[in-house]
């Protein structure tokens, strides 16, 4: 019986460790907004935002905003991977926000490009300088 309990405890620890290994965070200190009417980007504004990826088995994302809000994006899958014409590597995920809006998140390897949240025709970009 002790061996069974010890084994179960060990397996639980391993599963927590593996989940923690997949989880990662990206911190950004600037944000810009795309104006769909004028088709132009705003100037960069300083604002601290943090994204924590893979917060659970569904690989959902938690977003800590500059205003102190916490938004959880439900990962709907459909992961796409690619490179821009300039060779910048990215991943795109389809998400559902906490109010039921569908959007896409484009995560670049380069933190100076950062993350792009897309809810067509609206976009918000987060970057780190």
Which descriptors would you attach to this protein?
129 residues, alpha+beta, eight-stranded antiparallel beta barrel, globular
Strand content: over 45%
Q: What is the number of strand segments?
A: 9
Q: Give the end-to-end Cα distance, rounded to a whole number of Å.
A: 56 Å
What gyration radius follows from the Cα positions, in whole Å? 18 Å
Order of helices and strands: HEEEEEEEEE
Mean pLDDT over the residues: 89
Return the structural class: alpha+beta
How do the strands of the widest beta sheet line up side by side? 1-3-4-5-6-7-8-9
**Which percent range fits the helix content?**
10-25%
Which descriptor suits the 3D outline? globular
Low-confidence stretches: 4-20
Task: Summarize the main sheet.
Answer: 8 strands, antiparallel, barrel
């Amino acid at each position: 019986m002790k061996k069974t309990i010890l084994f179960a405890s060990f397996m639980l620890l391993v599963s927590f460790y593996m989940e923690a290994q997949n989880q990662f965070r990206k911190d950004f200190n600037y944000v810009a907004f795309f104006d769909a009417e004028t088709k132009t980007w705003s100037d960069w504004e300083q604002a601290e935002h943090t994204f924590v990826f893979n917060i659970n088995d569904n690989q959902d994302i938690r977003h800590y905003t500059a205003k102190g809000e916490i938004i959880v994006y439900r990962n709907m899958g459909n992961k796409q991977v690619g490179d821009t014409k300039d060779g910048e590597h990215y991943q795109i995920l389809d998400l559902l926000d906490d109010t039921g809006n569908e959007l896409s998140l484009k995560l670049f390897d380069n933190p100076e490009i950062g993350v792009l949240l897309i809810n067509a025709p609206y976009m918000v970009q987060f970057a780190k300088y």
